[in-house]
Amino acid sequence: MKRMKPDRREFIKSSVSSTAGAVFASTFSAGFNRDVAPAQERTPAQGVRIRFSVIGINHNHIYGQVDSVRRGGGELVSFFAREPDLAAAFSKRYPQAKLARSRNEILEDKSIQLVLSASIPNERGPLGIEVMRHGKDFMVDKPGITTLGQLAEVRRVQAQTRRIYSILYSERLENRATVKAGELVKAGAVGKVVQTIGLGPHRMTPKERPAWFFELDRYGGILCDIGSHQFDQFLFFTGSTKAEIVASQVGNVNHPEYPGIQDFGDVMLRGNGGAGYIRVDWFTPGGLATWGDGRLTVLGTDGYIEVRKNIDIAGRPGGSHLFLVDQKETRYFDCGKVPLPYGEQLVNDVINRTETAMSQEHCFLATELALKAQHQAIKINHQDTKTPR
């Protein structure tokens, strides 16, 4: 058996001892959501370090984006939204933020260093270009870009302006167990990574969705949209800097009443650091206590890690569950108190012009792979076997 290096052994040993017990022994308070920052994390100890604003709040992910930057030392100054109902809800949560009269009011405010957005997906790339041309950095919800043409222009403007274009792949950056998995893999806990398997199931709830959710040109397709999380994780955990799509497929399997939706997609890919498989869907059943049983498996030469992001269907409440299996034993990690560093790292990058939160090339490559997989995907159709409702 290959022996651990001392630093690797000590890192894993200390990580385990900091959790609540040994193998499968931890219990948590029912209903505690690990992926929502506790109140004490919302005010940074270092005080206000940058000023930021929001343009576009069409997806609820904007709240996680704002909270992440606030934890990192950002002061939310203002926001703009075309929709009165969305603006009212946002203002209620963040009463300190001024409602701007137009997005130009924000773009032309020289005191604003960073702009956040969760606008309609196909509008995000053009908005980011405008933000960068106004000398500001940009952090956007995924999918940050919906076409290869947009990606080419975003890359060109980013290289020209040297501004930050950061896509918040929250399934990695804002999930505590996935952050912990990154620490363990870096420490060598599973040896050399061979493959990642990323599963991203979601619940559709069509009556609660806006019209753009069902328009393919606006959300970009299932692999472009929710699949982008999985491409980010593949690159990060395999350490790949180059990759190609082996095969991809998408389909509207069970929702013919919504012809623009794609409810299933999967991808095989390979990179210069490992292989990957991705499956995403809109089939989370009503009996599950969360919107999706998101999972990540990292297979290595000396073991594997499984992350159960949102729920452990075996019984532990809450999310952010991590299991590590190596040559000696199986261990469970309670990741409820693992820090989320992305927001602070991004604020540092805005101030110091660095790339500690995410390299620009990684950000763009994850999106490029998602867009290529979407573009190349074979269309599948199982509507003849539609399940009765």
Give the averaged pLDDT, no decimals.
Answer: 89
Strand content: 15-25%
Shape: globular
Q: Please name the CATH topology of the largest domain.
A: Dihydrodipicolinate Reductase, domain 2
Q: Based on DSSP secondary structure assignment, what is the total number of beta strands?
A: 15
Q: Overview of this structure, please?
A:
The chain has 389 residues and is α/β, with parallel strands linked by helices. It has helices spanning 6-17, 61-71, 84-93, 103-107, 121-133, 148-161, 170-173, 176-186, 216-219, 227-238, 342-352, 360-376, and strands at residues 50-57, 74-80, 98-99, 114-118, 137-141, 165-168, 193-201, 243-251, 264-271, 274-281, 295-300, 304-308, 321-325, 330-334, 378-380. The strands form two sheets. The protein has a nine-stranded mixed sheet with strand order 14-13-12-11-7-10-9-8-15, with helices on one face. β9 and β10 form a beta hairpin. The longest helix has 17 residues, at 360-376. It is globular, with a radius of gyration of 21 Å.
Can you give me a brief rundown of this structure?
The protein has 389 residues and is an alpha/beta fold. Helices cover 32% and strands 23% of the residues. The protein is built from twelve helices and 15 strands.
Write the layout of secondary structure elements.
Elements: H1 6-17, E1 50-57, H2 61-71, E2 74-80, H3 84-93, E3 98-99, H4 103-107, E4 114-118, H5 121-133, E5 137-141, H6 148-161, E6 165-168, H7 170-173, H8 176-186, E7 193-201, H9 216-219, H10 227-238, E8 243-251, E9 264-271, E10 274-281, E11 295-300, E12 304-308, E13 321-325, E14 330-334, H11 342-352, H12 360-376, E15 378-380
Parallel strand pairs: 1-2, 1-4, 2-3, 4-5, 5-6, 7-10, 8-15
Antiparallel strand pairs: 7-11, 8-9, 9-10, 11-12, 12-13, 13-14
Helix pairs in contact: 2-11, 5-6, 10-12
